[in-house]
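Next comes the chain:
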Amino acid sequence: MTIRIEADGRDVRMWVKAVPGASREAVAGAVGARLKIRVQAPPEAGKANQAICRLLARTLGVKTHAVTVASGHTTTEKIVRIRDLTPSALRKRLGLE
């Protein structure tokens, strides 16, 4: 199954599955239609969300402020918004094409 990625104006939205409190940080592949993201930060006070944004920004080669959690702030299933990136560019940077 492919990861759900949609264009949203000049931005792109991607569905992710967060795994906070992991032993190491990694983009761990697909889980259904979501990209699995492991972060060491605990799921408290937005720490895991911030870690997800930092890890994705580093992985995609964009600035940290370009990646935000659009929905799912308190759950493990989230939608992440990446500014000024197309779906095809996102797939290419993640190695999905």
